[in-house]
Amino acid sequence: MNVHTPDARGAFAVPTSMRYNAVENYIRNTTFDRPTLVLDTDIVAQHYQQLKAGLGNANIHYAVKANPTREIIETLVAQGSHFDAASRGEIELCLSLGAQPSDISFGNTVKRASDIAFAYHAGITLFAADAEEELEKLAEHAPKSEVYIRLIVDASEADWPLSRKFGCARDKALSLLGYARDLGLKPVGFSFHVGSQTRRSAMWTVTLDQIAQVWTDAHAAGFELDLLNIGGGFPAFYGEEIEGPTAYAAGVMKLVHARFGNVPRIMAEPGRGLVAEAGMIAAEVLLVSKKSNNDTHRWVYLDIGKFSGLAETMDEAIRYQFVTDRDHEDTGACILAGPSCDSADVLYELRPVQLPLGLKSGDKIMIRNCGAYTSSYSSVGFNGFPPLAVEVI
Amino acid sequence: MNVHTPDARGAFAVPTSMRYNAVENYIRNTTFDRPTLVLDTDIVAQHYQQLKAGLGNANIHYAVKANPTREIIETLVAQGSHFDAASRGEIELCLSLGAQPSDISFGNTVKRASDIAFAYHAGITLFAADAEEELEKLAEHAPKSEVYIRLIVDASEADWPLSRKFGCARDKALSLLGYARDLGLKPVGFSFHVGSQTRRSAMWTVTLDQIAQVWTDAHAAGFELDLLNIGGGFPAFYGEEIEGPTAYAAGVMKLVHARFGNVPRIMAEPGRGLVAEAGMIAAEVLLVSKKSNNDTHRWVYLDIGKFSGLAETMDEAIRYQFVTDRDHEDTGACILAGPSCDSADVLYELRPVQLPLGLKSGDKIMIRNCGAYTSSYSSVGFNGFPPLAVEVI
């Protein structure tokens, strides 16, 4: 399977073969009565293997939040994946589908105390924290557990840099390790996140330099750390060049080893990079219009929007690619919007999308590489629209 | 019931008595195991009566999308309310709870063709449109129906002005009326939306002036319009002064009558203004932390966030008010964030919130006036967190 065909420049790749995969054929030959995410778990398995080939002995902890569809978890359990869970709900899901407690980390730095207790009694022994109060909760409800401290990353070359919501500044890192030890926990290492959709491995350099300095300082201060959690950031193809998964993962590991030496345990938490390219959304055009007699662009309204699966269009961060049966026609600039009676449900306006001039109400429209951060984001029923349907082929 | 106590300036009002209402007492005396919206339908009925007292013979079409909870719809059916539906799902809901088809308008300007056909066969005869293609869909699937044309509003003094997503520019208004007539539909009038959370009736003046000009032009061109849909924009109390509901509605109607004379049919579509103050969310503090040793503010993480009910915090648009058991303590600036492992799930950061210095993990926190645009926005299970629970007392 040649998902990422190297382009003329060799190192980078564009997933050209995705254009004619099983998912797209299935959508072309199926009638849907509501927006539907169609997933191919074979692609998930392939991506797992491709990433694993580059990551070497680092463990993949799939970020379940990216897509908790049952068949994806089952596929990854069968592949030997580990899991990064954000909540009790995700832990229960993974356990119910055969994951071992020892393969699940509770990676949310903001946990409900009762959920910590649940995880502890379920046999989970590895937790994230970035604050004193979180360590106190862990000491009380998951005594003697292993904990890694999440650090804030200052510099990011990601398409979607993270906010400061997660992690502590580096000036607090060592005191939190010490506090964890004082509380009877086992401080085992650090985690960080390089930023969502970091398209090339070389973009990790500055962040890894920063984290390595803290790692060195911690060892110098007497902490015997053995775990480095390099988080997510593994990219998916949304139209801009990305490095292929194996080369990308190997590139990151090379940078890691050069700075951290042989760390006994390395964790990586791909979500988007594992599942985004495994699914396409089958959607429909509801209306094409012009607002004014002298408008230069058209408005295209789809039956899926910001509140029914395409939440990652917020601030136009993730730019999805669209496929229609009219892609041979001339195109024009379109503002793209969702179906709800919500003025904020506009997908792309600052940077309009080129779509065929003949596009009209009732036309099928396919949205590529939507396997991550779509179905679970969709609302329970805003405006009376049902949540995004999911089909696995 | 004295929801809006006039303040010293007479005309404007602050809902002081909300502080000790039944919802707040219920939350204080109840233990919740997940974030829960608690609703009091008596307040919905009161607000309906208060708005109706100011609106006179204008019909209230409740914007169902604001909160489709069954008991709210039942309360409003009993009050004699009409309904503005955004989708087939909302139409089915209203019909199943006793609303008459003749009291339901299909107000979404972007409708699936099959949903138009469903509505037509269910007996609904009044539809919105803002584009040629939408009129063609109506002519085919709801022949001879009444249609009103939605206009874009240029100027808005709303707290949350709408985008250009809905409506056509005024230069297209008359041609759309004509096209509707040519297609065999009955063009009956115009609609507009002054902008969400328009806090004082005087703020409607410029918009009404604009719409009245189009109305006059249409009559001069021979269109016998008899329906004016003034849309929503009716405010709720989020901490900034608003005009009380009866005075507000009467103020708007006075401006309308001065510009449009005696229009046979006037529709108003309050959503937020009817139900927001009827509910509070019971939530919990999960973590209080500082990111760095020299941070001047704290981070407070709640068990509810942008993807589990508080979507209207996007761009910090709606600023909710928080109540804790420590409100007598000194306060400090806090950045407020939700529980999900999503970096974008930060509620208030640009303008931090003052919260008690003693606030800590496990503390109950109540969020005022959350009856609108919360529960139906919440995700099906992002990060494994269940959707916002709803209880009606």
Short descriptors:
homodimer; 393 residues; alpha/beta; TIM Barrel; Lyase, Ornithine Decarboxylase, Chain A, domain 1; 8-stranded mixed β-sheet; 8-stranded parallel β-sheet; 27% helix; De-COase2_N (chains A, B); ornithine decarboxylase (chains A, B); lyase (chains A, B); EC 4.1.1.17 (chains A, B); pyridoxal phosphate (chains A, B)
Describe, in plain words, how this protein is organized in 3D.
2 copies of one chain form a homodimer. Chain A has 393 residues and is an alpha/beta fold. Chain A has 2 domains: 42-276, TIM Barrel (Alpha-Beta Barrel), CATH 3.20.20.10; 279-392, Beta Barrel (Lyase, Ornithine Decarboxylase, Chain A, domain 1). In chain A, 27% of the residues lie in helices and 23% in strands. The first copy, chain A, has 10 helices and 19 strands. Chain A has helices at residues 22-28, 41-55, 70-79, 88-96, 113-122, 132-141, 173-182, 205-220, 245-260, 272-275; strands spanning 5-6, 12-14, 36-39, 59-63, 82-85, 104-106, 126-129, 146-150, 186-191, 227-229, 242-243, 265-268, 279-289, 298-302, 322-324, 331-337, 346-356, 364-367, 389-392. In chain A, strands 3, 13, 14, 15, 16, 17, 18 and 19 form an 8-stranded mixed beta sheet that branches. Chain A has an 8-stranded parallel beta sheet with strand order 6-5-4-12-10-9-8-7. Chain A has a 3-stranded antiparallel beta sheet with strand order 1-2-11. In chain A, strand 8 (146-150), helix 7 and strand 9 form a beta-alpha-beta unit. In chain A, helix 2 packs parallel to helix 3. The longest helix of chain A is centred in the middle third of the chain and has 16 residues, at 205-220. Chain A is elongated. Chain A starts with a strand and ends with a strand. In chain A, 56% of the residues are buried. Chains A and B meet through helix 4, helix 6 and strand 13 of A and helix 4, helix 6 and strand 13 of B.
